[in-house]
Specification:
By secondary structure, this protein is of the alpha/beta class. It has helices spanning 2-5, 16-29, 52-65, 106-114, 119-125, 132-155, 176-193, 207-220, 243-265, 268-276, 287-297, 305-315, 322-328, 341-356, 413-434, 455-458, 501-508, 530-542, 553-563; strands at residues 32-39, 49-50, 68-80, 83-92, 200-203, 225-231, 234-240, 280-283, 319-321, 364-367, 379-380, 401-402, 442-443, 453-454, 465-467, 471-472, 475-477, 489-493, 514-519, 522-526, 549-552. The chain is built from 19 helices and 21 strands.
Length: 574
Amino acid sequence: ALRRGLRRCSINAQNWAALHPGLLQAVRDAEFVAVDMELTGLHMRSERFVGVDKCYEAHCEGARTFMPIQLGICAARRTSPTHWKLTPASIYVFPRGQERIFQVSTAALEFLDDNGFNFNEWVAQGVGWIRPKVESEKRLAIQLRIDEVKHLQRTMSATQSQDAAPGEPVDIQPGPDMEVAESVRAQLTAWLASESQDSLEIPLDSAFQRLLMHALIRSEFPSVYSHSARRGEQRVLCVYKSQGEVYDEQLKSLQAEMQKIDELVGVRQVFDEITANKKLLVGHNCFYDLLHVLQSFYSDLPSSVHEFKTMWTQRFPVGLDTKFLAETHELLSPLQPPSTLKGLADFMAGHAAAQSEQQASTFTFEVDAPMCGSPRYRLPHQYAPFLLETESPTQGGGFLADAGGADDLSHEAGYDSLLTSLAVLFQLDTILKKRSMQWADLSCELAPKDGVRTVSDLLPLSVNRIRLVKTQPSMINLSGRDESDMSRHFLMTGFPPTWKKWEIMKVWSPVWVSLSWIDETSCWVITKNDDDVKNITMIYKMLPDPQFKLLTYDEYKAQEQSFGAHSLEPGNES
């Protein structure tokens, strides 16, 4: 009941025109942008995969079948070397004006409903979009018409048919059409008798009557020129005293149509702005989100993972996955943070607060008051030492640390994008402290000033690595060779069911390995480099009486081909 009672503030089709310029400016000013999506479903097949190609193929099927319904964006910029300003936004998205067939998962709908998702607002007011190809086709069609009108302008006769004799009156049957014709004749006669140089505009909604009046004007008033135009939602018959005025009106209408295309681009403008300004893109366990960004807003996903990586990095050259960073970075993984987004962000904030008792906090943050009002986003007490309040509760400020608890809006896309921003900031803060660096030494820009390190410099083994669920290898490298070389993977089977992570880690000490569980007696052991492959092999050979069996990946594949070993496919990592 609490979640449903919280006031939400979402950008939708009603307020998009007013609010999106501010959002796009926030993206331009940002050092990085965090993204989160809520979807109508995740995947068609919940399986475990060996090989990035198989994982990509299955997840592509899900991205083509399901659809994003809410987009969370959080633009993060610094106002000083150690102070961050976060601007979160939640946008309902709906393929308005498109005939889009998609599927929904009942589990996803129940999950969204439990988390207060407003389905009515999504359908009635979701912001639409068109893909670049559709945009280009529409712009080309209008530009061709503009070029044609301009050509007619240049080649039109210098003489006007002022002295042309009227033709025979148009034969119109008595009734509503006759009444309209008489009214138009009277207005034209009065307008021509006046000295006005303005055009004559006659409201006329009926397309047939407008066509009939054009014929009447050509025949009975040959010295003037008529043209149909739109004034807001109303259609009007425009009459001019020169042909040049007609062409000017046509060009004006075509330019308005061209501007209308900007509205049709819709929510895609956010990602276009991220691309144009080459912003660092941050997500949490975000492989699904990446696929949906391309599939929904840009073009159909390619058949091969290599083409996908090329397509993605051309638009978004640098990205970070906070889940992958938490699980694999040598300064973060020993902390054993939770795997969920909220769990990770809250844990890292609490860790930073505990550390700040011995070492002063190295950064603070504030949250921009939302552009569309004041949502009840609240952050738990762990964030209080770092959060600078810019508005008091009586002024409607909404991002206030609450020592008595927090209004948990997890799985609301805007809130999750805010948590993603906070998670990566606390992760970077921890790494900087451990390496005796200052925030002034680091920039999230792709091309910072001389002497300042980039995120790619600080995290060379983490940038553009995205966590893959239930897959070996458990990561896709968007900007380099796929980790499809499984030579660093060993299958460990038959150990006692009472063994947990640290019993297995102890076996291979001092080599640091990561684990991907299959069941309670088997798992994958993954090393970080080729030297550790040799060390694992040597340790296994030195064990006098091992309580398990160890297979290389090649040995596993040979066994799978001989007997079929579905039970040996990798599961969840730890």
